Amino acid sequence: MISSTPIEEYVVGRRRVYVKRDDLCCRPPAPPLGKLRGLEPLLTRFVTQGATAVGCWDTRVSKLGQGLAAMVRSRPLRAIVCYPHLKAGTIPPPVRIAEQLGAEIVRLRGNFVSICFAQASKIVTARGGVMIPFGLDCPESVAAIAEEARRIPASVLRDGTVVLSCGSGVTLAGLLRGFDPMPRRIIGVSSGRSLGKLRHCIRKYVRTIPANVRLVQAVMPYDQVSERVCPFPAHPNYDLKAWAYLVDHLVSLKPPVLFWNIGA
Q: Is the pTM of this model over 0.85?
């Protein structure tokens, strides 16, 4: 893990946009995924509680399983990565990397996420393991993201706009807990989850969602990639969709504008 990630500057049209490269929070073989900040303290808690195996549910486009496999290597834990296997489909590259790092790989038939996660949880429990919450939805994740959010200079936030991709809502909850000062507007662009479920996740950690938060419904299905051009590495199923929103609406966004790049 890297203690703090950089803020880069880009010119979009004639406007300056700050980009928080939180996808750089880990070094290989861990993947570029900002939410892994919360996985490190979560694994520490599991070890303290006596766990010997940890499992997760991974989509075909996310990289949580790779992150889990990388991080357990320095702990007395083994990783179990469950993912949806398509008929005649190939193993997703991050899952293959997780296997190469020593994780046990479990293929499940694709289904609704809630059903797949429940099936994966039963398998992991049967193997004597504990399950990582879906979307890393846990206090450790929110606290770790909030800690990084507190490092953002006030000059980048005050009276400005923050845009980010929302997969589960955990990152946005962490930003709301950590930003000081609070920007004028925070725009969370869903990568596919319903706005109702995003709000439910956020309210677990922030009693009342502030009026300066705007959630934007996904403009395309989760598994459909965005083909927009971006000047920095951005995940096509997550960050790139939020970046496209930022570019398309930049003229109406009050500066300074900060894009929180999560990675996945």
A: yes
